[in-house]
């Protein structure tokens, strides 16, 4: 067990940092905001942490704190700035932000190490630090997925005008989501860089945005579990595919394409649908007074927990 | 999904908490004295495993594939010559880093955790190398890097480099320019590429002032710059005696094409990265480009010629700089094993240092070392459109 | 800016436009953001390169091969990825992200093939019989390739814009983007039209691949991705859903980049280009020529 752990320690730690990065994209998406600023904040947080450690001799904990805080503030400001943008326009603006961070890093002279970046920023992060951070973040996010808050978030995403008419402050939800995404991105960046010990401007690229997006779309963008499943898949997939040899990239691409086509709610949605189907089978086999009203709803692969606001009261009572 | 939430959350938290306990209970990583298995002659085992961690796929695969080929050829020679004694063989295995820093880190970690691995030939990309260097030091596995010219790579006892950073032999190009009387020079460089940024901003200005060269223009571009019409025209209009081109291979091809189309007929000076036929697609526009490099198949010294012949016989093509790196790296390790008489990780580390202190003759010529870092005599070559010819050095 | 620099900016803008055309066409009509466009561009050029290495071909032949390869690739992408996703999609927004990722996934395959064969080294058309000529016109230096690209870019860009606005098929295409269900109720054959649009876009990608490889001398397997980000930026800058916007956007971006390069702030090019886009979006959230959306929240 321990040899497996040490052999794969990089992958294990990477799973947690990727989870945080994926969550930084997933949180705004749940609110209906297409923001990739989390990746830019990954860069900001990473660089800030590295600079704090190498130029200002701060400890690991302080560096992480500095990185996360800086990223959070930047995201908040950015969120206020781009309030009026929606959809792909917003996406593009956040991509622009991310790429600008990279350019600033290249031209930052001695502070950011220029094109070579910063090396030697080795923090003493243990896996359990990452685990605790991940658990805390997930617990907090999970709480926002259920109950009243969960429903309000759904409303802001699905029908902002309706939500506003109910008195929900849509702008505040959006800006909060933006800030949270910045904090998560910065935390992920700080952790990643202090584990890797180096950061270069290339680390902040469109490629990273694509990776994070792929993780949540394939994993499932509706909940934190999707981000977790996606992270596990994409961090471990390359080593699983080792045996494929040179054509690893092809298999990887094929898997991503297949997931995009056949899994509308991601892998998590697939699991959910399978579980529901199993439960229906079990219920029918049990022969109890199965409520027919439940069947039509569960049959439709598309209608599920993603929009609970739309579930008719009768079936909601049954599925609880 | 609703009904599941509470139960699932509880279960997940429990599992994660249990995992946390297990993980926290584990202490810090251990290192190993590694080495081979079985018994060969003397203290050396029958099989010594060396792992090459290279980019075999991805954007700079040509570097990794080249290094791998060179190392494998070297291992064959070592075994054929029974250099380490009868019955002792070096076995080379390759691992692909696919051009990604994270893959490099995780693959390196796996390789280092494998106790049967005696030494590693490390990744060529600077970011990858700088990221794994501290891990290598912690795990105490001797690693010989190829290429990887930035800082943060050769940082301690267990990190070595088998490629001289271009900054250490670029003076040959400056000498060439001074000798030919090409005193007014323009530089165009990729500022996001570490080696080039360092060359253009620090090294060349220093060399220029020493040799009385005059830098007329210093134009920076990014890695994402694809079209060079404007800078090419700006340079052509100034018409300096020579142009120093510090660009990646595809950029170099475009720049050469557009520079010539802009009417510039003067001398273009490149870098070692343009070797190995990487600017062949510039066709006639690439003819006459001169560049300093640490190895060329056109080199005349005995070791180089022998290396080229054996490489051609085995692979049917000429070796490039990257192949020479892999070749010299493996020979360095083989000599290290012989010098220290041991194939354990610590033994190889000691051996590498010993050999470095004395230097040896490799494919690149007489190799000397500054600490754990290789230095080469270097050579200046001219590209004639299909092959290189040596013109000085 | 000097006249020469202006001409250079125009050429660069046409380079970007030629690349972005296919993407803008598909996006502006049937609403698909095809992230496989960059690889289609590169792979069409690559296939033409492989053929040209065996047989000495003139430029038109190379262009034809590239166009055919591009059209084939895009058609396959549509059939294997985008069409199934659209069919299974519950609503448009969730489909958007999946199409994005699907395109990226599909693109990995030709990319891996090209990288494997070229090992990352650049490739061009040195063996073709075409040689670019350089002319001096009114004190300006002009290359034949540059002229071809300028003509092709502007011609196709403006021509396509006009066609989409003026023709019946253009109308049908636009209706799919606005409301697919109603469009099919009106008798528009969605799948056939979408397929042929993707094929045309792929052909455009191939055209761009061949011409740009000539212009740049050579490209490498990653060149497509760098262009892709710029094309995305151009389309958004110009205003989604408007071809004319993309035409304008290409030249604006090219002008900005040229100004930066000419003033030797070369390492800030990306920051300036993307900063410009950012600023434009702040001032005009719908891009330069996009439709202003009414937002109440």
Strand proportion of chain C = under 5%
- What is the SS-derived class of chain C? mainly alpha
The major sheet of chain B is characterized as: 5 strands, parallel
Radius of gyration of chain C: 19 Å
Helical content band of chain B:
40-55%
Please tally the helical runs of chain B, counting DSSP H or I stretches of 4 or more residues. Answer: 11
N-end to C-end Cα span of chain B: 72 Å
Q: Write the H/E string of chain B, N to C.
A: HEHEHEHEEHEHEHEHEEHHHEEEEE
The order of strands across the largest sheet of chain C is 1-2
Query: What's the overall geometry of chain C?
Result: globular
Q: What labels would you give this structure?
A:
heterotrimer; A: mainly alpha; B: 393 residues; Rossmann fold; 4-stranded parallel beta sheet; 11 helices; 43% helix; elongated
Describe the fold and architecture.
The complex is a heterotrimer of chains A (320), B (393) and C (297). Chain A is an all-alpha fold. Chain A has a domain at 10-204. Helix content of chain A is 74%, strand content 1%. Chain B has 393 residues and is of the alpha/beta class. Chain B has helices at 4-25, 61-81, 101-113, 126-139, 171-180, 194-211, 229-238, 249-261, 302-315, 321-340, 345-358, and strands at residues 47-54, 89-96, 117-122, 143-145, 159-161, 184-190, 214-221, 242-246, 267-269, 290-293, 360-362, 365-370, 373-375, 379-383, 388-392. In chain B, helix 2 (61-81) runs parallel beside helix 10 (321-340). Chain B is elongated. In chain B, strand 11 and strand 12 form a beta hairpin. Chain B has 11 helices and 15 strands. Chain C contains 11 helices and 2 strands. Chain C has one domain (3-222). With 297 residues, chain C is an all-alpha fold. Chain C has helices at 3-29, 37-54, 59-88, 92-118, 144-166, 168-178, 180-185, 190-216, 223-238, 243-262, 269-283, and strands spanning 134-137, 140-143. In chain C, a hairpin with a 2-residue loop joins strand 1 and strand 2. In chain C, strands 1-2 form a two-stranded antiparallel ribbon. Chains A and B meet through helix 1, helix 2, helix 7 and helix 12 of A and helix 1, helix 3, helix 4 and helix 6 of B.
Brief account:
By secondary structure, chain A is an all-alpha fold.
Give a topology summary:
The complex is a heterotrimer of chains A (320), B (393) and C (297).
Chain A: H1 2-7, H2 9-30, H3 37-55, H4 60-81, H5 87-106, H6 109-112, E1 118-119, H7 127-145, H8 147-158, H9 160-165, H10 170-196, E2 198-199, H11 206-219, H12 224-240, H13 248-262, H14 266-286, H15 294-299, H16 313-319
Antiparallel strand pairs in A: 1-2
Helix pairs in contact in A: 2-7, 2-10, 2-11, 2-12, 3-4, 3-5, 3-10, 4-10, 11-12, 11-14, 12-14
Chain B: H1 4-25, E1 47-54, H2 61-81, E2 89-96, H3 101-113, E3 117-122, H4 126-139, E4 143-145, E5 159-161, H5 171-180, E6 184-190, H6 194-211, E7 214-221, H7 229-238, E8 242-246, H8 249-261, E9 267-269, E10 290-293, H9 302-315, H10 321-340, H11 345-358, E11 360-362, E12 365-370, E13 373-375, E14 379-383, E15 388-392
Parallel strand pairs in B: 1-2, 1-3, 3-4, 4-5, 6-7, 6-8, 8-9
Antiparallel strand pairs in B: 10-14, 11-12, 12-13, 14-15
Helix pairs in contact in B: 2-10, 3-4, 5-6, 7-8, 10-11
Chain C: H1 3-29, H2 37-54, H3 59-88, H4 92-118, E1 134-137, E2 140-143, H5 144-166, H6 168-178, H7 180-185, H8 190-216, H9 223-238, H10 243-262, H11 269-283
Antiparallel strand pairs in C: 1-2
């Amino acid at each position: 067990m321990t040899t497996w752990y040490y052999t794969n320690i990089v992958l294990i730690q990477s799973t947690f940092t990727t989870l945080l990065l994926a969550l930084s994209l997933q949180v705004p998406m749940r609110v209906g905001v297409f923001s990739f600023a989390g990746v830019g904040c990954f860069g900001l947080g990473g660089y800030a942490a590295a600079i704090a450690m190498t130029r200002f001799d701060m400890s690991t904990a302080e560096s992480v704190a500095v990185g996360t805080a800086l990223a959070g503030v930047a995201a908040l400001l950015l969120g206020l700035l781009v309030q009026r943008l929606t959809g792909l326009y917003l996406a593009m603006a956040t991509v622009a932000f991310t790429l600008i961070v990279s350019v600033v890093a290249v031209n930052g002279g001695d502070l950011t190490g220029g094109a070579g970046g910063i090396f030697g920023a080795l923090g003493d992060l243990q896996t359990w630090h990452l685990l605790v951070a991940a658990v805390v973040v997930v617990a907090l996010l999970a709480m926002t997925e259920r109950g009243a808050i969960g429903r309000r978030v759904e409303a802001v995403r699905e029908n902002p005008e309706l939500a506003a008419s109910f008195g929900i402050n849509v702008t505040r939800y959006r800006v909060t989501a933006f800030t949270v995404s910045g904090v998560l991105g910065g935390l992920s960046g700080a952790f990643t860089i202090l584990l890797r010990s180096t950061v270069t401007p290339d680390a902040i690229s469109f490629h990273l945005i694509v990776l994070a997006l792929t993780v949540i779309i394939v994993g499932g963008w509706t909940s934190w579990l999707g981000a977790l499943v996606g992270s596990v898949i994409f961090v471990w997939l390359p080593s699983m595919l080792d045996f494929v040899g040179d054509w690893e990239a092809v298999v990887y691409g094929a898997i991503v394409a297949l997931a995009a086509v056949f899994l509308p709610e991601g892998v998590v949605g697939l699991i959910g649908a399978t579980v529901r189907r199993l439960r229906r089978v079990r219920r029918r086999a049990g022969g109890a007074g199965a409520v027919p009203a439940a069947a039509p709803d569960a049959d439709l692969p598309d209608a599920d927990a993603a929009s609970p606001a739309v579930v008719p009261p009768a079936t909601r009572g049954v599925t609880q | 999904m609703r009904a599941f939430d509470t139960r699932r959350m509880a279960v997940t938290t429990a599992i994660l908490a249990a995992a946390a306990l297990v993980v926290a209970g584990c202490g810090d990583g251990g290192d190993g004295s590694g080495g081979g298995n079985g018994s060969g002659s003397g203290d050396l085992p029958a099989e010594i495993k060396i792992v090459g961690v290279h980019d075999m796929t991805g954007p700079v695969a040509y570097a990794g594939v080249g290094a791998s080929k060179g190392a494998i050829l070297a291992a064959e020679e070592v075994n054929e010559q029974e250099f380490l004694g009868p019955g002792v063989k070096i076995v080379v295995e390759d691992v692909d880093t696919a051009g990604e820093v994270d893959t490099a880190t995780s693959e390196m970690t796996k390789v280092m955790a494998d106790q049967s691995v005696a030494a590693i030939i490390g990744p060529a990309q600077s970011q990858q190398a700088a990221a794994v260097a501290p891990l290598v030091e912690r795990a105490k596995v001797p690693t010989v890097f190829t290429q990887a010219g930035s800082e943060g790579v050769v940082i301690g006892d267990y990190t070595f480099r088998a490629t001289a950073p271009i900054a250490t032999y670029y003076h040959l190009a400056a000498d060439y320019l001074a000798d030919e009387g090409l005193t007014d020079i323009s530089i165009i460089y990729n500022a996001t590429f570490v080696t080039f940024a360092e060359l253009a901003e620090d090294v060349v200005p220093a060399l220029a002032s020493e040799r009385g060269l005059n830098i007329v223009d210093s134009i920076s571009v990014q890695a994402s710059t694809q079209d060079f019409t404007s800078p090419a025209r700006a340079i052509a209009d100034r018409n300096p005696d020579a142009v120093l081109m510090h660009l990646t291979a595809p950029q170099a091809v475009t720049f050469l094409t557009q520079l010539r189309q802009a009417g510039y007929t003067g001398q273009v000076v490149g870098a070692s990265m343009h070797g190995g036929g990487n600017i062949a697609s510039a066709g006639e526009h690439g003819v006459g480009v001169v560049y300093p490099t640490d190895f060329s198949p056109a080199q005349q010294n005995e070791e180089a010629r022998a290396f080229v012949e054996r490489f051609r016989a085995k692979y049917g093509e000429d070796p490039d700089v990257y192949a020479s790196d892999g070749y010299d790296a493996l020979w360095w390790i083989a000599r290290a094993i012989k010098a220290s008489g041991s194939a354990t990780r610590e033994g190889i580390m000691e051996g590498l240092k010993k050999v470095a202190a004395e230097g040896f003759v490799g494919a690149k010529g007489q190799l000397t070392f500054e600490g754990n870092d290789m230095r080469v005599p270097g050579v200046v070559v001219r590209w004639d459109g299909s092959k290189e010819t040596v013109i000085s050095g | 800016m000097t006249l020469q620099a202006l001409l250079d900016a125009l050429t660069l803008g046409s380079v970007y436009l030629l690349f972005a055309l296919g993407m803008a066409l598909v996006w502006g009509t049937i609403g698909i953001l095809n992230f496989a466009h960059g690889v289609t561009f590169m792979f069409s050029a690559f296939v033409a390169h492989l053929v040209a290495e065996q047989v000495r071909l003139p430029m038109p032949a190379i262009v034809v091969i590239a166009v055919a390869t591009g059209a084939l690739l895009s058609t396959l992408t549509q059939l294997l990825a985008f069409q199934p996703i659209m069919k299974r999609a519950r609503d448009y927004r969730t489909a958007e992200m999946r199409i994005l990722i699907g395109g990226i996934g599909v693109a990995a395959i030709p990319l891996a093939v090209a990288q494997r064969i070229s090992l990352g080294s650049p490739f061009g058309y040195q063996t073709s019989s075409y040689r670019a000529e350089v002319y001096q016109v009114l004190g300006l230096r002009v290359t034949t390739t540059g002229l071809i690209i300028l003509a092709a870019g502007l011609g196709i860009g403006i021509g396509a814009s006009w066609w989409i606005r003026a023709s019946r098929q253009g109308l049908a295409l636009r209706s799919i983007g606005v409301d697919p269900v109603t469009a099919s109720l009106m008798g528009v054959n969605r799948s056939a039209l979408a397929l042929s649009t993707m094929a045309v876009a792929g052909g455009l990608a191939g055209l761009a691949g061949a011409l740009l490889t000539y212009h740049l001398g050579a490209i490498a397997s990653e060149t497509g991705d760098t262009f892709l980000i710029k094309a995305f930026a151009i389309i958004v800058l110009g205003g989604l859903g408007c071809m004319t916007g993309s035409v304008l956007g290409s030249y604006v971006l090219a002008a900005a980049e040229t100004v930066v390069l000419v003033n030797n702030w070369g390492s800030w090019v990306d920051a300036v280009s993307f900063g410009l886009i950012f600023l434009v979006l702040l001032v005009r959230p719908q891009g330069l020529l996009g439709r202003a959306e009414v937002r109440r929240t």
